[in-house]
Design goal:
This protein is of the alpha/beta class. 41% of the residues lie in helices and 22% in strands. It is built from nine helices and ten strands.
Length: 290
């Protein structure tokens, strides 16, 4: 009987040892699987980073110009274009570099930081900037309009204030961006961006504001309550076409770049944004055929 009990105790000890050993094997196996998984993930990430670092860096200058580029935000049309452009090709790595409106000319100069600008017009100071550059034909059509929260009159009174954006060119101020000139000669007070102008207009701090139709369409799509009750002048409308301005000092292959842009413009998500914000896209086949 004592032998039977001893054998049972030994058998129990063996069983517990086997169970403990199996648990240890399972734990070790799990750690091995995790190690292999994370090692593979790490190798894949390292490979992706290495491949990305081998691309030639192309910097895109941008200033606050909603909905194309919004300072301090990742949610804008240019950001989507850059993301998709980087996924479309492997030769270049495009990145956005924010600049002040007055600094955009030097940014594309011989000592500048950047290679190109989207959604810009050479009529906005480029021709008299003293810098050499290349400009495409128009890519998008747009216009600045005079907006107000009332629709009774559109000729500003002596006591009325008009709002504009620092560094923006308006026909209303003879394309002069000087803050003091705008205020004294045209009663235009300059703010940092169009959203600030809209808020000033809604709170009665200014009676009129120069806003782009693209901005108003964007706000109508994203926050319609902010443009409720907003009226556009039936007469004052400044039409323009935005282009791509390219530095003459960039190594960017322009012909290939525009082929990539044509492919980009055909992508469903880009087409959806163009439709959502009512952007008027022109053809740039004439650029490719140059």
């Amino acid at each position: 009987m004592r032998l039977y009990n001893r054998m049972n105790r030994n058998a129990g000890t063996v069983a517990r040892c086997q169970s403990s050993f199996l648990k240890t094997l399972i734990v070790v196996g799990v750690f091995n699987v995790l190690f292999i998984f994370f090692s593979s993930e790490s190798h894949a990430n390292n490979a992706a980073i290495e491949a990305d670092s081998e691309r030639e860096l192309i910097l895109i200058a941008a200033y606050d110009y909603a909905p194309y580029f919004i300072s301090g935000s990742d949610e804008h049309f240019l950001g989507q274009l850059v993301t998709n452009l980087n996924a479309l090709q492997t030769r270049y790595r495009f990145e956005i570099r924010e600049v002040r409106p007055h600094d955009r000319y030097a940014a594309l100069g011989p000592d500048g930081c950047c290679d190109l600008m989207f959604f810009e017009s050479e009529n906005w100071g480029w021709k008299t900037s003293g810098y050499s550059y290349a400009a495409t034909p128009g890519i998008l059509k747009g216009c600045d309009r005079l907006y107000s929260m009332q629709n009774d009159y559109w000729e500003p009174k002596e006591t009325d204030r008009i709002g504009g954006v620092v560094g923006y060119h308006y026909q209303l101020t003879n394309m002069n961006t000087d803050i003091l000139y705008s205020e004294i000669e045209h009663k235009m007070y300059r703010a940092n961006n169009q959203l600030t102008l809209l808020n000033m207009l809604r709170h009665g701090r200014i009676q009129f504001a120069m806003l782009s139709e693209e901005f108003v369409h964007w706000m109508a799509a994203e926050a319609p309550e902010t443009v409720a009750g907003l009226y556009a002048s039936p007469e004052h409308k400044e039409v323009y076409e935005t282009q791509i301005i390219l530095s003459n000092h960039s190594a960017l292959d322009q012909r290939q770049f525009f082929r990539d842009l044509e492919r980009l413009a055909a992508q469903p998500e880009i087409k959806a944004q163009i439709k959502r914000y009512q952007l008027q896209l022109t053809s740039f086949s004439s650029v490719i055929d140059r």
